[in-house]
Each structure stands twice: as C-alpha cells, then as structure tokens.
C-alpha cells in the first residue's frame, strides 16, 4: 500500500463499510443515514421537556468531534508525507468544524439555571469530562496529560492509539526537520506519548520560516492555519466555560468535577507553543 493512501483515493481510517452484497439502488435516505438509530437515541430520563435539548446538543457535538478526528487524522497523514497543500485544505475544513462547535454553545446557552436543575439529577454520574472523543482530539493536538484520564484509557484502543502516535504538531515539527531547518534530533526523537513542550530549536526554525516567507511559503501558510485553529480551540473552551457559569455558576459539576473552576484551568494549555512565542521575537 502507498505510504500516502489518501492521495490515491484510499483511506487509512477505520470505518464500517457496507458489505459487498448491499443493493445501493434500493437504499432510501433514512437507510443511508441510519436515521432509525440516530433519531431513536434520544431517551430523556426526567420529566423536563428541556432535557431533549441537553441530549441532542451533546450527541451532535460527539458526531462533529468524530468528523474532526477524521479530518485531523487526514491532516497528520498528509504532513507525514510532506503533502502540505493537501494538509492545509483539510485544516480549513477542521477549522470550520470547530467554528460550528463554538456556535453550538449558543443553543445550549438558552437553558436557564432553573430548567437545568429540573433534569440534573437524571444525569447521574454522567459528565462531558468523560468524553473519550474529546480526549482523542486533545491527544491528536499534543495535550497528552495522563492525569486527566481517570480510567478512560482502559479498553479504549482508539484513545490508546492516539496516545502513542505522533500528534499533528509532532508531524509538523518532523516536516521542519525534513526541510533542513535546525530542529534538534533530540526533539525529533522525543517520546510521542508526552505532552508538547516548548523547544528552542523548533522556535528558531519557525523564526527562519517567518523571516523568509517566500522561501518557506507552504510551511508559513500551514503555521498560520495552525494558529487560527488553536485560536478557535481556545474559543471553544471559553464558550464552554461561559455556558457552564451561566447555567450552574460555581457549583460542583456533574460526576463531582469542580465545574467552571476546572474548565478555567484548561485555558492555560498552549498546543503549539513556538508559534505563539515567536511573535514576540519577530
């Protein structure tokens, strides 16, 4: 198989594909989209009519996160193959997905504190903190912090695979080295299961790119797309915090989390550190 299968119409991402005997000509809209499963998956546990909003908000977010994982995987694969124009096209789509997720908080934000309290007990120990797909996205972006897993890694092969695979930014750093920029071998050979940390040789490499844009235009363009993506990712976090504070204030979150206090700490995370720090030195 080609090292870059996506360039030849193939796909490395594991998906459920219909069996060869499927009669596509007989397929209806609802069959193709499995609407019986999707639309039958909303089962409120309280008497509150607003619980439907809460369920659908989180179900659709999980679907968009599934697509985001799909696209970030394609972007990382293309960067690993030095196909930067393809990677940037995919990152444009990933950016739009994030913007959609950010805007979706407006809908959940229509839930009042009183309306949420009517359904809160029915949530039991369920919490967005338990979303393994969100952890996958964080791992793919280099935020590989084991202390936040709380058992999620056990039996979850997708999450484990993301932990021990190079992050998107790790692939970008390797591309810097392949293009002859002064990234140290220690940085290139770093343990990929550890979180991204600032590296002076990576910063120096980006400074060369930014001082010689015409010579490294594709790397420069990719860097700017990464900065825009992280900006949207921060906004996604912030809008989540704002919505939580609006609905439950500083109360303890579901599943015993510290709620908004915990979420506020996540704003300190920097995914692509050198790309932000170099701006001070330009």
List keywords for this structure.
mainly alpha, Methane Monooxygenase Hydroxylase, Chain G, domain 1, globular
Structural category is mainly alpha
Helical fraction: 55-70%
Average predicted confidence as pLDDT: 87
| Percentage of β-strand residues | under 5%
> How many H/I helical runs?
13
| Low-pLDDT sequence parts | none
Summarize the main sheet: none
Give me the strand/helix succession: HHHHHHHHHHHHH
Shape: globular
CATH uppermost class: Mainly Alpha
Explain what the structure shows:
The chain is mainly alpha-helical. It has one domain: Methane Monooxygenase Hydroxylase, Chain G, domain 1 (Up-down Bundle), CATH 1.20.58. Helix content is 58%, strand content 0%. It has 13 helices and no strands. The radius of gyration is 21 Å and the shape is globular. The termini are far apart. The model has no long low-confidence stretch (mean pLDDT 87). Its cofactor is heme. Heme-dependent dioxygenase that catalyzes the oxidative cleavage of the L-tryptophan (L-Trp) pyrrole ring and converts L-tryptophan to N-formyl-L-kynurenine. Catalyzes the oxidative cleavage of the indole moiety. Belongs to the tryptophan 2,3-dioxygenase family. InterPro entries: Trp/Indoleamine_2_3_dOase-like, Trp_2_3_dOase.
């Amino acid at each position: 198989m080609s090292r870059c299968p996506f360039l030849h119409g193939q796909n490395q991402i594991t998906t459920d594909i219909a069996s060869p005997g499927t009669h596509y000509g007989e397929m209806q809209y609802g069959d193709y989209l499995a609407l019986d499963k999707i639309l039958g998956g909303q089962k409120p546990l309280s008497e509150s009519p607003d619980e439907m909003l809460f369920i659908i908000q989180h179900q659709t977010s999980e679907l968009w996160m599934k697509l985001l994982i799909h696209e970030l995987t394609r972007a990382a694969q293309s960067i690993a193959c030095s196909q930067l124009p393809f990677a940037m096209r995919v990152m444009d789509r990933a950016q739009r997905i994030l913007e959609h997720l950010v805007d979706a908080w407006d809908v959940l934000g229509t839930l009042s504190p009183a309306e949420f309290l009517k359904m809160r007990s029915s949530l039991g120990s369920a919490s967005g903190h338990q979303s393994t797909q969100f952890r996958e996205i964080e791992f793919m972006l280099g935020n590989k912090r084991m202390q936040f897993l709380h058992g999620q890694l056990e039996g979850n092969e997708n999450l484990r695979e993301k932990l021990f695979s190079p992050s998107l930014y790790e692939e970008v750093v390797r591309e810097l080295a392949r293009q002859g920029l002064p990234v140290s071998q220690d940085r290139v050979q770093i343990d990929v299961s550890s979180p991204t940390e600032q590296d002076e040789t990576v910063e120096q490499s980006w400074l060369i790119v930014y001082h010689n844009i015409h010579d490294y235009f594709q790397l420069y363009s990719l860097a700017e797309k990464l900065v825009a993506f992280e900006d949207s990712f921060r906004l996604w976090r912030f809008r989540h915090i704002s919505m939580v504070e609006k609905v439950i204030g500083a109360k303890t979150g579901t599943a015993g989390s510290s709620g908004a206090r915990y979420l506020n700490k996540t704003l300190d995370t920097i995914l692509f550190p050198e790309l932000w720090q170099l701006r001070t030195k330009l």
